[in-house]
Protein 1
Amino acid sequence: MKKLKRNGFTLIEALLALFITSLVSLLGCMLMRCALHFAHMDVDTQNQFAVLQLRRELAQSNDLKIESDCLSYILNHEKKVLYFDKHRIVKSPGYEIYMEQIDEAIFYKKEDGYYVWFKKKNKTYDFELY
């Protein structure tokens, strides 16, 4: 009696391979779409994200002070300072960058709020932080 040789794949194996391939392709397309969306993100949207991050951080802090165009505060019993350096708004200790490609920036207090004013690509922005 001859043994049957099976060459090729069964229908279920072929359908499973097609399903996995289409799933990976779909995820790849979604990833590319998301990457293109962030690459072409509006400058104003990036500024709003940075301001939201700053607001969240300052909402959790206390003892805010303006010292020579820098904003200092206490967060988790540690003194932090926001300042403008090398076309960036950064936080120390360390060097955490919140915004980049800024021409100039100033932190100031007006009435009961703390504000940041900055100039980016010949446009000026003024946001309340706290």
Note: The beta strands are 62-67, 70-75, 78-85, 88-92, 96-100, 104-110, 113-120, 123-128.
Protein 2
Amino acid sequence: MSDPIPAPDTTSFPPSTPMTPMPSAAAIDPASAVSTLPPAAAEAIPAAQPAPTQPTGVPERYDLALDGMTLDSQLLQTADPVLRELGLSNEQAGKLLPLAQGVMQRTQESLLNHFADAAAAQKRAWAEEFAADPEIGGARRAESEHLAARGLDALGFGEGHPFRQALADSGFGNHPDMIRAFRRLGQLLSEDSGFARAHAGSASQRPVWERLYPQEAK
């Protein structure tokens, strides 16, 4: 028969400590719960970012107008984000329009002056080239001008005709090749008095292109 098991010695254990009951979930304050976190853990929680707001006075939509000028819709769309970034009100943005109009007008005037100067320089260059041409210029310049004018008259482009005025305004009337062509036409008129003129209307006369290019007509 085995020996009886001795009873445990409870004298070596500390007295039991009563357990503190856990608070219910409803009793936990979220603010106090967060505040009990360690500093490092609390800093790791991102702060709520406020919703972006547009500056005070910036309208939902810019309504801009300028007296005597139609504003380009695409240009306004391009300028809209810039005006918003600057925080301009509709009234402040409207004050910029006269300034922008002045800049545009000055730019247009500058471009027109540039084109006018370039056109005048080209007209002078053609006139100088015509005067220096040994075939139609120099001592033969007056004759060339007379014959060219006669050729224009024969085609119905007399003094005051829009085409003839366009030649003078554009400077093409001084172009050596233009003068050479109408001079040749004037020479044909001098060589053959039966040359068909614009006012003749005779079907029996040979056409102008045959008179100008007799070799090709054969």
Note: The chain has nine helices and no strands.
Protein 3
Amino acid sequence: MSVFDAFGLIRQDWLDVGDGHQLFLAQYGDADGIPVLYLHGGPGAGCSLDELALFRVKGLRIYMLDQRAAGRSKPYGRLEGNDLVNLLTDIEKVRQWAGVARWCLLGGSFGATLGYLYSCIYPQRVLAQVLWSLFIPSAAGIDWLYGRRGVAQIFSSQYRQFVRRVDDTDQLLQQFEQDFNDQDSEIRDEAIQRWLAWELALAAPGMSIDNVEQGRVLARIELHYARHDYFGAYPLMQQVGALLQCPTVILQGELDWVCPQRLVDDFLSQFGPPLLRSRLVNSGHHTLIDTRMRQAVSDAVGQMIRYIKHQ
């Protein structure tokens, strides 16, 4: 039996959340099962059916939510009304619409950031959660990812292709925004390809994004959030981190060049709940394309569900 047979489609909907945005929500599995919300990364990546393979136990009702302007949400790629507060508010609107009292969360990268924040702001709504490759949107996190003194020291040749002689991180992001909106399509396309090449070099070495429009939207939404310092996500994480109540597992890959464990544990030691630290996945990378990370996340999901069933 394939994972798609085990987790058949229950229903799919487009939910109007205001500001001209409609979110695509697909539900899989057991209509009477434990509710689990999946939060994709990016921001802007959208959900994939392949991610259902993370669930190896029955008795789940899985909510696959495409965040604003991502995946099959409408309008695709729209930046207006697309910010952190709206993404968090959308999650709560979806919960209310679905009639779910409490649910489990599962999210990676920026999806893990959203899950962490949501579980702190709405602590009574989350049963438990598994987060991986947690992105810390601090100045240090942004400099690590886009500045010359961070991961650029490891991927020096790829970084030179990425920056093209721009020294300052803020100037770099400003230049990308200018190029993304240039009237010349060759300039736009070349800048988007450089952005995606840098991301893939760090997050998924050897992989490519074959869907041109998907790559373009992902790059634009990611830049939109980076240019706006992720709309205050880090100060908010500092303010609400200690409010987290639910059992939480955070998995970070040893070879995660996007979200290094050091930044995660530095944050948690200062602003997180007592005793919460990330777990290192030996030789793990950033994304679920990596078999070690995928296995670690899947195992943690199984443990989370067994915990919930025995409560």
Note: The chain has a mean pLDDT of 94.
